[in-house]
Amino acid sequence: MAEIWILRLGHRPERDKRITTHVALTARTFGAKGIIVSTKDEVLEDSVMDVVHRFGGDFTIRTGVSWHSFLKEFKAKGGRIAHLTMYGMPVDDVAKNVSLDKDLLIVVGAEKVPAELYQIADFNISVGNQPHSEVAALAILLDRLSQGSWVEKEFEGGTIKVLPCARGKNVINPAEREDMP
Amino acid sequence: MAEIWILRLGHRPERDKRITTHVALTARTFGAKGIIVSTKDEVLEDSVMDVVHRFGGDFTIRTGVSWHSFLKEFKAKGGRIAHLTMYGMPVDDVAKNVSLDKDLLIVVGAEKVPAELYQIADFNISVGNQPHSEVAALAILLDRLSQGSWVEKEFEGGTIKVLPCARGKNVINPAEREDMP
Question: Hey, are the CB atoms on A163 and B55 less than 8 Å from each other?
């Protein structure tokens, strides 16, 4: 299957640190390969990679990337662009038409995005036409694109694994577990 | 149908302002009746109510509420408690067992929550057992509980309405629209 990538536009390290971290970790949980952030932010890189090292998988982050060239290159390589916006077409109508035979880049803006983005995008997708959260919108879009199969994703490696539990916490160290009888 | 409410624990106005705003607006979009925040925060109240006034609906917010008494009262009135946690049982297994014949309170913590919450809750629910975002987790839980029907929710009143659009923005003022032929 093709890969899904996230492009985060307009990130301001001071103001958006936590929201962009949520965007990145949501992308990882729901099966994206990695996130590209237009603004340089090493603190953000470190906090995302810390989760990857502890919880496994091969999610990647790059910050300080010229978004315009990145979009152009992605398209030139045959990838498609989806832009998440409260002004777009309903996710349930659009997601079924987004075939994942080619790589997909999901653009997630913080605040206002350049007007040309609505034209560059192959799909402008809304998760409800109400103002809410790019984190929530991204989760729902990735859920629909994967038809809920993100749940089965395995994160290889890492030092911590959480197992489902009805009450309290069940956390194991996968390496230790292999030694158990 | 019964009502769904959100209880936000451990909100710190300075650090969590934006994330809790996202939690509240996500709750509103995905059909919850309102949010209760344990810490007093009038700035948060204002920014959520500003969206309600502009985009309609009857979503409410109360801040500075003793969470312990609120939980107790909610249970005493026959309501059920669901606690969103990365340590809980898989949302797709649990959500189908949460019948909405009674009101439901979804508890969403910021950082660590008191250990007793895992015992008070009728359901400890995880949206993946990976660390990501309470905003994403709440969206997915509300999506599953409503079986995707949040999309059809109408928000009455308000001064702005966004209509789906393939490119660009289509925003109307509902009051003006009624005057149109």
Answer: no
Q: Comparing C-alpha atoms, which of A51, A46, A35, A41 is closest to residue A16?
A: A41
Confidence category of residue A54, pLDDT binned at 50, 70, 90: very high
> Mean pLDDT throughout B35-44?
97
Tens of pLDDT, residue by residue over B52-106, are 999 999 999 999 999 999 999 999 999 999 999 999 999 999 998 898 899 999 9
Sign of CA dihedral B17, B19, B21, B24: negative
pLDDT at A110 over 90: no
Task: Choose the closest CB to B22 out of A89, A127, A133.
Answer: A133
Mean pLDDT of B108-132: 94
Sign of CA dihedral A32, A38, A40, A44: negative
CATH for the B4-155 domain, from 3.40.1280.10, 2.60.40.420, 3.40.50.261, 3.40.50.150: 3.40.1280.10
This prediction has a pTM of 0.95
Closest CB from A136, A166, A167 relative to B26: A136
- Do B138 and B91 meet the contact criterion of CB atoms below 8 Å apart? no
Q: Please name the residues between 16 and 75 in chain B that touch chain A, using a CB distance below 8 Å.
A: 18-19, 22-23, 25-26, 28-30, 51, 55
Q: Give 3-state DSSP helix, strand, coil % of chain B, rounded to 5.
A: 40, 20, 40
DSSP state of A124: E
Q: Where are the domains of chain B?
A: 4-155
Query: What fold is seen in the domain A4-179?
Result: Alpha/beta knot (3.40.1280)
Q: Which of B132, B145, B146 to mutate to test the interface with A (most CBs of A within 10 A)?
A: B132
Asked if A89 and B119 come within 8 Å (Cβ–Cβ), the reply is no
CA distance B81 to B125: 10
Residue A22, SS3 per DSSP: helix
| A11 min Cα distance to partner chain B (Å) | 14
Structure tokens at B9: 């624990």
ipTM, two decimals? 0.95
Whole-number average pLDDT of chain B? 94
How many Å is the maximal CA-CA distance in chain A?
A: 60
